[in-house]
Design a protein that fits this description.
The complex is a heterodimer of chains A (167) and B (258). Chain A contains 7 helices and 2 strands. Chain A is mostly helical and 167 residues long. Chain A folds into 2 domains: 43 residues, no CATH class; 95 residues, no CATH class. In chain B, the strands form 4 sheets. In chain B, strands 9-2-10 form a 3-stranded mixed sheet. Chain B has a two-stranded antiparallel ribbon with strand order 3-4. Classes of the chains: A mainly alpha (167), B alpha+beta (258).
Chain lengths: 167, 258
């Protein structure tokens, strides 16, 4: 049993397994490998040192600016909202739709009407510079806005084109 | 038992460390956060054990019914699609023959035959749409309102097949371009979900009557069926009322005075 591996190696040697082989069309293959690396590596090389800037959502909407400095805060702390706004909104949705609980009191104890479209967007009326800026940067596509209006007033004032055009 | 100075210092040191760790965890646990979050019902909301509607057809005329439809569709951003196969409506008009097929016959009074009825979701006590919904996107609330959660709707349309009143419609495409009367305070729907009348839960929560009731000039009466003193109950006691397709056992909460 002990010389089993040796036997195998000997058998392989007899078949010429360890002899150097010729690489057929070697030049073409090598060119192909180089071209592959260039294609794959190009985006990395091209964008080297040009990292996209981390976006800063804008908070300078008229409603927020008109608040007194001391009361200028969201329903929860800034850090909490940054980390958990999606969970908070998910929770809000279930509480309102399934349980009909439509008021929210966070740790500030101030009461807010639960509504993405009417409460959140009342202060954060700058959808593009607030919501979209980070969502675009992180490649997030929340489908909230399929139904909830991101620019309610603009949408309501929009001129309706066509008369019941269908298909 | 005697404690040496050395042992005392050891115990004191260990206690301090344990105390700091315990205090720190207490701070972490009790810090302002999700524990304090509260979701509360709105004060001043209209509540009931079982919401019901009476349609007084003697006070109704076509103009009033159109006003009701208009108010509802404006309030809820209901699209206006011409094609009857793709149309979306929450409240609409049906001739007697369609609204009450089991009451219709060849000798029915001409006045009834020619009358059009204002119809909408019956908010059945035994709703077949709820029974068939595979995701519980539609369910009956404790106050009797058959509610629709479009977030959870997967668009299978079982509920549309189950509803004997045609109260449910499917959004075959994004409805937004077809919405002509627009309300910035209410969401729209997306393509791929079913929608229907919700007895204006969003208005009841604000202490307001449903939009159609407000527009009906007294022809629609909305109230609590379980409250013996309610106007709805009084009307049902003193008048003969009919309900749609009662023999199917769905127990509608919408009553018609004809």
């Amino acid at each position: 049993m002990a010389d089993e591996p040796k036997k195998v190696v000997d058998a392989l040697r007899e078949t010429g397994f360890f002899k150097p082989k010729k690489l057929y069309d070697g030049g073409k293959v090598l060119i192909g490998i180089v071209v592959l690396f260039v294609i794959v590596g190009f985006p990395f090389l091209y964008n080297r040192g040009k990292a996209a800037k981390v976006p800063e959502p804008e908070l300078n909407t008229p409603v927020i600016q008109s608040m007194p400095e001391a009361e200028r805060r969201c329903v929860e702390s800034r850090q909490y909202m940054r980390d958990n706004h999606m969970r908070l909104l998910d929770d809000w949705r279930d509480q309102v739709v399934r349980k009909d609980r439509r008021e929210y009191a966070g740790f500030t104890k101030k009461r807010y009407s639960i509504s993405l479209q009417n409460t959140c967007l009342e202060c954060h009326s700058n959808y593009d510079a607030f919501c979209d800026r980070c969502h675009t940067y992180t490649g997030t596509e929340p489908y909230c806005w399929d139904c909830h209006l991101n620019k309610p007033q603009e949408w309501a004032a929009e001129k309706v084109e066509g008369e019941g055009q269908w298909r | 038992m005697e404690v040496t100075r050395r042992d005392f210092l050891k115990i004191a040191g260990a206690s301090t460390i344990v105390g700091i760790l315990g205090g720190w965890s207490a701070v972490e646990v009790l810090a302002p956060g999700e524990l304090e979050q509260q979701h509360l019902p709105k004060p001043g909301a209209l509540t009931a054990k079982r919401w019901a509607m009476v349609v007084d057809m003697k006070k109704m005329d076509e103009a009033t019914m159109k006003a009701c439809i208009d108010a509802c569709h404006r309030a809820h951003n209901v699209p206006d699609i011409d094609d009857p196969k793709s149309t979306v409506k929450w409240i609409w008009l049906e001739p007697f023959e369609h609204a009450f097929p089991y009451r219709h016959h060849e000798h029915v009074a001409d006045s009834l035959r020619e009358m059009r009825f204002l119809v909408f979701c019956n908010h059945c006590n035994n709703p077949p749409c709820v029974r068939v919904c595979p995701t519980q996107a539609t369910w009956k609330r404790e106050d009797g309102i058959v509610m629709m959660d479009e977030h959870r709707c997967i668009g299978c349309r079982y509920c549309m097949a189950a509803c004997p009143y045609g109260s449910r419609n499917y959004n075959w495409t994004d409805p937004r371009p077809f919405i002509k009367k627009r309300n910035p305070d209410y969401p729209t729907r997306s393509g791929g979900v079913v929608e229907k009348c919700n007895f204006c839960v969003e208005r009841l929560a604000e202490g307001l009557m449903p939009a159609c009731v407000e527009a009906s000039k007294g022809a629609l009466i909305f109230g609590d069926l379980a409250d013996p003193a309610s106007e709805v109950k009084n009307i049902l006691n003193s008048h003969y009322t009919i309900r749609r397709k009662l023999n199917l056992g769905t127990e509608p909460s919408v009553f018609y005075m004809v």
